[in-house]
Specification:
Structural class: alpha/beta
Bound molecules: zinc ion
Strand order of the largest sheet: 16-15-17-18-25-24-23-20-21
Number of helices: 21
């Protein structure tokens, strides 16, 4: 094993000597044989470099005081018992944890000449553990500012931007071009860490414009314009500033990589940390797609759930980033073992069940675990127990958890450009809520899905029966063409809200670019020069309804009005389950549309009326022609559902089961019942299905827990049994079913191409291998 590994990574022998023992739990042939549509390096003829092998990470985020209290021997034991194969160690940036020679590179008083980074690096390497030297390159103290005021970001009034006592450095200045590269080179030369990562590498966020001379001159050279004075999304120059700001972050990414590779060898990569949330990425000008295309390994800084997103957000994050990275690259994620946000308690242990579920969901989505603590010394020692069982289990089952391809035939389309130029300052309302509504409806229905980048539709189309555009307002002409091609080839389409109504800059088109597929048109103005009015957007939930058609009232039990027409008829199957109602709560606002004759309207809008006092709560206009749900079956059999009524956003906001059921019915109809997984049983579970060479892997994560309405979880609640059916891929011969958590072999039947088995109970998660 040692010999086999030696030749590809000379120069770091102390690491390599042990790495074969510590990290290489899957073989080269595994790497080569995985069927991966995204693999760029299928012809690997040698063992992979460290960043493809190190799969369990750990991080003590070193505080300034830690040099006086860091017990390295205790932590070496901790690495061992948690099966950690790589660590992230603070090296330099805001604070240097080694005796640096770079001017103004601040060393904390507690360092006292100690080479803490060097000691940790050496200890890790002798234990066969890889080291990501961690930088934090975004701010500096007053001495530094006074020495180089022109290296710092300033606002429109000429004042420096500050964060607490520290001054924020400008992304376009010598701090990034010279100072940080000098530090990277010094560390790479002295200590030979395997690579570099950075906590906060991308400079000021979108809400703060820098007016320093470096920025002014560079922007002028590039565009011929002055830096915009104010935020104005409709201003061409502001738009150019946004694009220019994105480009600079990629330049920094490339510069840092070329620096570390030049100093530390070809595998000494730099990979800054990124959020798993594209909306967060937009706020900091980090183009997730282009970064993933560059990154050899993606370091995710996405530490805990939000109340709105739930644990499932982490499984989805794994799928979203792997959709960009490819499934043959690794994406470890910093997982807080302390109480992270809402509110922060940096030195308190996160309740173990809460931390554990976040880790397990990440693993289900293809993320590698990375325990993260603040400080090397804790009086709350409970956090030392949380990661160990998860990482031990991960080591034992690693071969099933990496290098696999997801199976899902529902694709949900997104793009960062849509977040930037359509979402603008309202991305949560316009982008996140509809996304969350669709994904949570799929989660509840146990229907596997994948996020698809709008520029990757052509590449990924063959995997999907249906594409969903959740209020994907901004679509480029190329993306429109891709969706058309997908539908022409027999794929189905679900689009909601204002999908395709905006161009690449977020300017409104005169009609939906996909109007012919939707079978519906934005209302045309009589005056050709007049722009159509902006679609109404419900900022809050309004007291509005949808009327389902045809109405069934005479058939059903209940009081009857004397003048009631006897409208009866068969309803479309996407309205199944609503036989006892003619209306559904809606909550949004709608405008009239022109509907093509071939399209069918299945629900119409009922405008607002008072909720209070109750005496006034009656429908003023019980019926309109304003369409809420439109279906349009194409000649080739493709099924298109257009929801001007943004049911996805309403479900994301209000969590009403009616909306989830409607979305579920629509997805079921558009996929023509081709969802490859069916899981029956009581409880909320998140299911992820994968394919590896000769086998299938199914994760079922139990989201039913004591934190029903508020995190954190205090106890896990066991659920089951679950009857599982999986559609077997053609020519798949595997029939043996076993579980990786309860360690059982399960009885299985095959009937008409479906494999059936039962999982008796699930406490936190179960992973089933079929092979
Ligand atoms: Zn600047």
């Amino acid at each position: 094993m040692e010999d086999k590994n030696l030749h590809y990574n000379e120069g770091r022998r102390s690491f390599i000597k042990h790495a074969g023992l510590a990290a290489a739990t899957f073989t080269v042939s595994d790497i080569i044989s995985v069927t991966n549509p995204y693999a760029s390096d299928k012809k690997l003829a040698y063992a992979p470099p460290w960043y493809k092998r190190v799969t369990r990470w750990g991080q003590v985020n070193i505080t300034e005081k830690d040099p006086s209290q860091y017990d390295i021997n205790w932590w070496r034991e901790f690495w061992k018992r948690t099966e950690t194969t790589g660590i992230i160690v603070n090296a330099g940036g805001i604070v240097a944890y080694y005796p640096t020679r770079i001017p103004l590179h601040y060393q904390p008083a507690y360092l006292q000449g100690r080479d803490l980074f060097g000691e940790l690096c050496k200890a890790a390497h002798s234990d066969g553990i890889a080291v990501f030297a961690r930088m934090d390159s975004n701010r500096a103290n007053e001495d530094f500012f006074n020495a180089h005021p022109d290296w710092f970001a300033i606002d429109a009034s000429g004042k420096p931007y500050k964060s607490g006592d520290l001054y924020i450095t400008c992304i376009n200045g010598p701090y990034y071009n010279e100072h940080i590269p000098a530090i990277l080179t010094e560390i790479a030369t002295l200590y030979h860490p395997e690579g570099f990562t950075d906590n906060s590498w991308s400079g000021l966020g979108r809400d703060s414009i820098c007016y320093c001379n470096n920025c002014k001159n560079k922007f002028k050279d590039k565009t011929g314009n002055d830096i915009p004075q104010v935020k104005n999304w409709d201003d061409r120059i502001y738009r150019e500033w946004i694009k220019w700001s994105y480009e600079r972050r990629l330049e920094i990414w490339d510069l840092n990589n070329s620096t570390t590779r030049a100093a530390g060898g070809v595998d000494c990569i730099w990979s800054g940390m990124n959020s798993g949330s594209p909306v967060d990425q937009s706020r900091s000008f980090r183009d997730l797609k282009k970064i993933c295309e560059r990154a050899e390994i993606l370091m995710l800084d996405h530490q805990a759930r939000s109340d709105a997103g739930g644990f499932q957000d982490n499984g989805e994050t794994g799928k979203l980033v792997h959709g960009l990275l490819g499934w043959n690259k690794l994406a470890p994620e910093s997982m807080a073992q302390y109480q992270a946000s809402r509110p922060w308690f940096r030195l308190s242990s996160k309740p173990a069940a809460e931390a554990r579920m976040w880790m397990l969901e990440g693993i289900a989505g293809g993320i590698q675990p990375w325990w993260h603590m603040i400080s090397a010394y804790h009086e709350d020692r409970r956090m030392y127990k949380t990661a160990e069982p998860v990482l031990k289990w991960h080591k034992a089952n690693e071969e099933y958890l990496i290098n696999r391809a997801p199976i899902a035939n529902v694709g949900i389309v997104w793009s960062q450009q849509n977040i930037d130029f359509y979402g603008r300052d309202n991305a949560q309302e316009l982008i996140e809520l509809p996304w969350r509504g669709i994904t949570h409806a799929l989660l509840q229905a146990r229907m596997p899905y994948l996020p698809v980048h709008a520029d990757n539709i052509d590449r990924d189309a063959k995997n999907f029966s249906v594409l969903i555009l959740p209020n994907l307002g901004l679509m480029t002409n190329e993306q429109i063409t891709s969706v058309r091609k997908f539908v022409e080839n027999g794929g189905s389409l679900i689009a909601t809200g204002s999908s395709s109504l905006y161009d690449e800059w977020g300017d409104m088109r005169t009609d939906y670019a996909l109007a012919d597929l939707f079978g519906a048109h934005f209302v045309k103005q009589s005056n050709a020069n007049e722009q159509p009015q902006i679609p109404k957007l419900a900022v809050d939930a309004y007291h509005t309804y949808l009327r389902l058609t045809p109405e069934l009232r005479k058939q059903m039990d209940g009081p009857h009005k004397t003048d009631e027409p006897s409208i009866v008829g068969a309803r479309h199957e996407i309205l199944n389950g609503f036989e006892e109602t003619d209306t559904l709560p809606y909550g949004g606002l709608l405008d009239p549309l022109i509907v093509d004759p071939a399209a069918k309207v299945l629900a119409t809008f009922i405008p607002q009326f008072p909720t209070y006092p109750p005496e006034k709560a009656w429908m003023r206009e019980p019926k309109t022609d304003i369409p809420g749900i439109i279906i349009n079956t194409k000649a080739n059999g493709s099924r298109v559902v257009f929801l001007p009524a943004d049911i996805d956003r309403q479900f994301g906001r209000m969590n009403l089961p009616d909306h989830a059921q409607l979305l579920r019915n629509i997805i079921k109809w558009t996929t023509k019942d081709s969802i490859p997984l069916n899981v029956q049983g009581v409880g909320l579970v998140d299911c992820h299905l994968y394919k590896q060479q000769g086998r299938l892997v199914l994760h079922v994560v139990n989201l039913t827990n004591s934190a029903t309405w508020r995190q954190p979880i205090q106890e896990l609640i066991s659920i089951g049994p679950f009857n599982v059916k999986i559609k077997l891929p053609t020519e798949f011969a595997g029939r043996k079913v076993r579980t990786l958590v309860s360690n059982q072999t399960l009885k299985a039947n095959v009937s008409k191409g479906w494999l059936e088995f039962q999982i008796k109970s699930i406490l936190d998660h179960e992973v089933v291998v079929i092979g």
